[in-house]
Structures are given as structure tokens and as C-alpha cells.
Specification:
Largest sheet of chain A: 11 strands, mixed
Oligomer: homodimer
Shape of chain A: elongated
Largest interface: A-B, 35 and 35 residues
Number of helices of chain A: 16
Number of strands of chain A: 14
Order of helices and strands of chain A: HHHHEEEEHHEHHHEEHEEHEHEEHEHEHH
Radius of gyration of chain A: 23 Å
Helix content of chain A: 25-40%
Distance between the termini of chain A: 28 Å
Strand content of chain A: 15-25%
Structural class of chain A: alpha/beta
Chain lengths: 461, 461
């Protein structure tokens, strides 16, 4: 359990920050500070994440389980007193996991633990059998002559490293995102990768991938880290390695939807502030940190503002559907709501504490970004950039120019759990969750009600 | 990576020990100290544990996999130069895991992760369905009226706590060992327990249980800790909970065996020193810490003595078969070798460092026990009792009066991995493994060659 200093700047204690130019920080509206600090005792977010993961469990996009999640969401959001609670449905392609296994037949017979990647082609129920050819990285696979790969099961063992901000996910995720396409183009019959993850438990990391246009889909799976290293050791003996790989899946069409709820603003003509997360999850855990925690955090913060006062601007809470298979909810929202937003922000990087605030509100609104930094600093949150923000479902809208805020969560341990059966409620630290709610409450308090643009009592640090 | 002080007593730094009466410690034979310290750079044990877990993998008792393990053992022990390498086979009942799953059908449909306990009755392939009745402990189940249990699936959520010496395994293991019998007697159709384990990963802990005579076998499984707590939360909602439980298994007869190898002593008439571990493992991991590490440690230590000099007494290395389902190898050895042993010791509590030495060599040999303590202290090993020792396969023989030594491993994290799919090579710390080899080498050096009973240069601490 951690405790957070309340009402005191932690900046002086942070060595990295101490080296930054000491820009004088604005003072914080006492009402904002009070809302923020009260949220450090929040129980609303825990209630949501506990309820959704217990009473619904996994919520694979486009399935009946996700639909039960939407029903649960509607009931919960209405019970919390939100206005305009409704679903905006959309159709989408579905991919559903079936039986899966990986077995070394020779030279050392044994089973490995594997999970299919989303959009993997299906093997027959009895699996396919082939010789394994191993590569240390996507680049090595790309450089290999087709003749080395043709007819084989490709194995890429590229190892992910931890980062706090998750910035390695792009690079280390290459074998998952591009590997299957590259392998198929070279004539491989299947591909297994070392999980894009950082833990040593026998729970593989799934995740979506898409074959490039015109490329023949092949079965694609992820081994756990212990299994991937086992396969490396087996290959290192220098004998031909034969694997039977069974990755059965089915595809079709399904219905998903975005669940929307609002805290109506005093001036309904003003553009709303969108805060969101995604309701769907992968199928093997209960989607606790990905992303029940996210929707719980933003909903609790909105609820706390609702309880305190009517904000000037409408706060719109969106529980996006079908994020995991490809941001279907985000794109559906963008299409349906092609209108100005005052700001948008999404919580979708686990349940670790917020360590940094970035924003991209536009050049003329940088003072507002600085006011946000000042309001968040007492939570131990580093002032980040003023010209940068990102999010998953909202990413394309921010890319298209929507003003964005990013409350960066600590992702040091995120990829221990990401897309695995281990993404369950017990992984969430309640105090970290509360710090998140406090950060989002402060952010909404600053943005929703008009801001204090002039420092009242500048203080030196 | 840890480093161990070499040739220096760590006792002064251990607060608990500082409070013990400061018995003057014997000096250590320089040859023993040299052998011990050289073993801190051992690579033999790693080679064995890496090889066995990679080239054989899991080694379920009585199966073809365990037989491959014996073949591997014979090759390895001969290659290492041991004498009299042979198998002493025996027959045994087998229990083999089939498909297994647990599914909540109502009120909140979702899958839980389960593993059958060894000797569980088999369900039909389509599983059985029943209402779940939960108990917080074995005592609560025992106290329940039959009418509450009859026709139900019993769930016991008793939570294990960590201990360094593993002493909680007896108490906390009750739901696994006695729970199925108690539940069956009360008319339950099946039982699932919270895993006897201390980790929060979705890898259930299996382990053997035996129905009491005359009790009808019922299906019995273990849920992971995240799943057990999920089931508790679901039950806490107060609605009837229906579960479909599939635990398919098959039983039969199989062949196992003890693999034996020796370092012949200079005087073959003297009783041998037995050091052992067990070759078999549970079926879901690769049996790295349970117990490839154990046989690797004792074998490496014996090999190091062999390389250094011919010991006075024969050292007999035993890789017991079929420990997990009920010490079949230990009993077979006891029956075949009803003869005096100079001492026996077994390594079967993971791969954590040795933190304590106990011995039970007999009242007249307590000086030898003290010499052992002195030789081991520089490795940071606490002097334990002189009238106590235990082991798994050798437990019954020690109970029957055989002299025993116990090099206690640190088990604080042992039950994170014990009997789970997570028992894999990556969990072993090479430096901890080396400290084990050094301890066993020192122990064998003291016991195998005649000991120094008089202190040469008493030193005060």
C-alpha cells in the first residue's frame, strides 16, 4: 500500500525533475484541490471494477459476453445517476478462440503452452505438423531466404524489455503485428512467437494482428516466456525440431457497441469533454486491468464531479466496445460524433498510478495545460509535454486534431499481465486505483468548469 | 544474483543467532573448506537440471515420460563417471490427467481455471453439474450437516500462508488431503479447493490425495487463487451458483524405478551414505524445482567429491521414482535395501538456498553433527537441531531409525510454483543452486571421509 502526499508538491524530491528549468507553477483552485484530495478515498472505481469483473468476467468483442457487459454497464451507469445513458451499437467481424495446443514431437517430446493471436487462421482440429525454424528477431526473419522458411513453422524469440511508459510496445510488438504476414509471404505454414510480455508465468499473451492485404492467413500463436526459452534450448541442441500446432478458431460477424453516459453541463451548447476506456477485453482473463480499471477510473471521476456540482461543460463518459480487435468502438464513435470536443482522454494502460500528464490542447490553451500540471503535481505526477497526447480508441480523433489529455499510468509491470489469463482483479492495488481517480477528478475539475488562468500567490520552490 | 561470503562466518550478522548461546564452533578441515568453496562455482548441477528439464520435460510417475527420464539419468550418470549405475524397477498404480475445465453456468457465466488433484475420480467427458456450497476451511466443512453438502459441489477456500521452512504445508494442505474424503462422506458429488499455494497466477496447484478406505471417490480439483477468490466473490452475492466441472482422468498400472549410482568408498564394508532426490514430477511444469534441482544438487556434490578424492565410505546417489503419487520409490528402496546406512539426506524443497542444517545421527554422533554445522556456517547456514531430520522418500527410513541429515532450503517462494505449470527452469537462480551444491559438497566431505572431531584452533566469535 502506498500513500500519496496530499497538498504538497513532490517535485523537489524527484531528481529528474530537479534538473528541469524551474518554471513557476500556478496555484490550484481550492475547490479543485479539495475534489482531488477527497478522491484519494474513492470507493466508486473499485466497486465498478470488482462488479464488472465478477459479475460479467471476460468480455470478448462482438460476443454474448460483451453484450452482457453492456447490459451491466447500462444498469450501473443509471444507478450512479448519469444522464443520457445509452448504447450506440455497431457490427463487426469476430474471431473466437477454440482448442489450442503446441507439442514438440521430436527430438524431445513435450507440450508447450500456446495461445492463438487474434485473427490467426485456424488449424484443423487435429493440428498441423512441421519443422520449426527459429529467428532471434523480426529483422532476422525478414532477412531470411524464403527457402529457409518455406513449409516450416516459424518461431521468433525476440524478447520484450520493460519500460515505464510502454514505449517499447511498438518495437517489441513487431513479431506479433508483422511477423505472421512476413512468415506467410515466405511460405511458412504457421508462426509462433515469444509472447509480447515481460513475465515468466505459463500464461501466454494474446493480442490482435492483421494479415496484410493479399497475404494468405496462417495459424499464429504466442508461447509463454518459459516455453519460448524452452524451445530455444531445444533448438540449440542442433537436431531437427518437429512441432504439432493446434490453433482452432472461428470467425463470423457480431454486434458490439459503445456505452455512453453524461454529466450534463450548465451550458449544453459547449463542446463536451470525453473521458473513456474500453468495455471489451481479451477472453482469457477477466479484463481487470485491461480495461475494467480504465472505465472504472474515468467513471468514478465523472461521478465525483457530478456529486460536487454541475460542471459548466458536459462530461461524456464512453465505455468503448471492441477496442482489442482494432479500435472498432473508437472508429464508430468518430463516425457518429463528428463534432467538436473540448477535450478527450482515455484510461487504457492498466491500473498503475499516474506518473505523468501530457496534453495537446492547442497552442492557445497551453495555460490550461499548465493549470492541469499544477493541479496534478501534488499527486506525484510529473508535468509532461504540452503538445502531445494519445489514447487507444481516441487516438485517431486526436490524430485528426481533437484536443487531448493523457494521464500516463506506470506501465512497468503492465506487460506482465497484458492480454493473459492473469489479468484478474487481484492484480489491482486499491491505493493506486484511488490515485488514478484523484488524478482524473482533478483533470475534470480543471477542464469542466472554467479554469483559473492567473496565478494567485506565486511561490518559489 | 546473490554472492555468498566465502570462508567467513556470517553468523555475527544474523540477529536471531546472536541471541543463541554462543557455543564455540569447531574449526573446519581445510580440505573440506576448499571443496565447499570451490563448489560455489559449480556448473554440474545447472547442466543436469537444464538437461533433464529441456530434453525430457515433465516426468509423471509410471508413464513413458518418466521412463525417458530414467534413460536420460542412466546416460548422464555414466557420463559423469559414477559406478554401479542401474535402475531398480517397480510397478505402481498410475493416474493420468485428461481434459479439465470448470465453468460457472449461473448466475454469472464464466470459466474458471482448475486442475484435477492426483487420484481424483473422473467425471464423464461432458462433466457434471451441481450447485456450489462454499466453506472457509476444512473444519467448517467437517462441521457442516450432511444435508448442506449432499448432492452439491463443495468448495473450500482455506488460504495458505508463506513460511520459510514449509511447516504450513501440513496444516494448509488439509483441504487437499482430507477434503475430498470428508466431502464424499457427506454426499458431495465433487470438491474444488483453493490451490495449496501462495501465488496469484492462473496456474493451479495439483498434488496427490487419497480417499480413505471405503469412501467413494469423487472428482476433486484445485482452482487457482485468482479463481478461488472470484468464486468467493460470486458466492458472496447470495444467489445459487451452478458449476459445470469436467475432470477427466484415467487410472491403470505402470512401471517406475529408482536410478542408483555410486562413488565407491575405500572401504566397501562400511555402510553407505545415501543422498537423493526424486526423478518424477507432476505433469504440467517441467519439474525443475520439484525435483530436477534436488537430484542435480546431490549428484553434483557427489561428483565433486568423486573428482577430489576417493571417499572412505561409499556415496550412493538415488534418483527416486514416483515420489509425487505417494513415495513409491522410497518404499521400494527401503524394501530392497534393508541394511544399515551411515547417513541419508534428500534435497526436495525447491532450489532456494540452504538456510539451516538439522541432523539426527544419534546421541553418540552429535560431535559429527556439530562438525557439519561448522563446515556449513560460512555459507550462511544456521546450525539447527541435532535430534531432528526429515526428507520425502527417505522420511519413512529416518522414521525407522536411519541416521539423517537435513539441509533445509528456503521455501518462502516454494509454494508459488509447487505442482504448477510454472515449475520451469527459469525459476532457478544459478547462484542459489551453487550455494546448495556447496552445502551438499561440504556435508559429503565431512561425512564420507572420517571427520575431524577435535577443534584444531578454537576461535571466538
Amino acid at each position: 500500500m502506498k500513500s500519496y502526499l496530499i497538498g504538497a508538491f513532490l517535485l523537489a524530491a524527484a531528481p529528474a525533475l530537479a534538473q528541469q528549468p524551474a518554471a513557476p507553477m500556478r496555484s490550484v483552485d481550492p475547490q479543485v484541490a479539495a475534489l482531488r484530495d477527497a478522491a484519494l478515498k474513492d470507493d466508486i472505481a473499485w466497486d465498478i471494477v470488482e462488479g464488472l469483473t465478477t459479475e460479467v468476467g471476460q468480455r470478448l468483442a462482438g460476443t454474448e459476453a460483451e453484450a452482457r457487459g453492456r447490459d451491466w454497464a447500462i444498469r450501473k451507469l443509471r444507478a450512479l445517476g448519469f444522464a443520457n445513458v445509452h448504447v450506440e451499437p455497431f457490427d463487426m467481424p469476430t474471431w473466437i478462440r477454440g482448442p489450442e495446443s503446441a507439442e514438440i514431437l521430436a527430438p524431445f517430446p513435450q507440450r508447450l503452452v500456446v495461445a492463438a493471436l487474434g485473427n490467426s487462421a485456424s488449424t484443423p482440429p487435429e493440428g498441423i505438423t512441421g519443422e520449426v525454424v527459429g529467428f532471434d528477431s523480426l529483422a532476422d526473419l525478414q532477412a531470411a531466404p524464403d527457402s529457409v522458411v518455406r513449409g516450416k513453422i516459424v518461431f521468433v524469440s525476440h524478447a520484450m524489455q520493460r519500460t515505464q511508459d510502454g514505449s517499447g510496445y511498438g518495437f517489441f510488438g513487431g513479431p506479433r503485428r508483422q511477423g505472421p504476414t512476413v512468415a506467410s509471404r515466405k511460405g511458412a505454414i504457421a508462426i509462433v512467437i515469444r509472447s509480447i510480455g515481460t513475465d515468466y508465468h505459463r500464461n501466454p499473451h494474446t493480442g490482435v494482428m492483421t494479415f496484410a492485404e493479399g497475404v494468405k492467413p496462417i495459424p499464429a500463436g504466442a508461447l509463454t516466456l518459459p516455453d519460448a526459452e524452452q524451445l530455444q534450448r531445444i533448438l540449440s541442441r542442433g537436431q531437427p525440431v518437429t512441432m504439432r500446432l493446434t490453433l482452432v478458431s472461428t470467425t463470423g460477424r457480431g454486434r458490439s457497441g459503445n456505452v455512453i453516459a453524461e454529466v450534463p453541463g450548465r451550458d449544453p451548447r459547449l463542446p463536451p469533454i470525453l473521458v473513456g476506456g474500453h468495455l471489451d477485453s481479451w477472453d482469457q482473463g477477466t479484463g481487470a486491468i485491461d480495461d475494467a480499471a480504465g472505465i472504472a477510473i474515468v467513471t468514478a471521476a465523472a461521478k465525483r464531479i457530478m456529486n460536487a456540482r454541475q460542471p459548466l461543460r458536459t462530461i461524456r463518459v464512453v465505455w468503448f466496445g471492441a477496442e482489442e480487435p482494432g479500435l472498432f468502438g473508437g472508429f464508430a464513435y468518430q463516425k457518429a460524433h463528428n463534432e467538436p470536443h473540448y477535450a478527450m482522454a482515455e484510461s487504457d494502460f492498466g491500473a498503475g498510478r499516474v506518473w505523468r500528464v501530457n496534453s495537446k490542447l492547442g497552442k492557445d490553451r497551453e495555460p490550461e495545460g499548465r493549470a492541469l500540471q499544477a493541479a496534478l503535481a501534488p499527486l506525484g505526477i510529473v508535468p509532461g509535454k504540452l503538445d502531445q497526447a494519445d489514447g487507444s480508441d481516441i487516438g485517431p480523433m486526436i490524430g485528426a486534431g481533437a484536443p487531448g489529455v493523457e494521464l500516463s499510468q506506470d506501465g512497468t509491470h503492465y506487460f506482465d499481465l497484458h492480454h493473459t489469463p492473469d489479468d484478474t482483479l487481484d492484480k489491482i492495488d486499491r491505493e493506486d486505483l484511488r490515485q488514478n481517480v484523484a488524478a482524473w477528478t482533478a483533470m475534470l475539475a480543471v477542464l469542466s468548469g472554467g479554469i483559473q488562468t492567473e496565478p494567485k500567490r506565486p511561490r518559489r520552490r
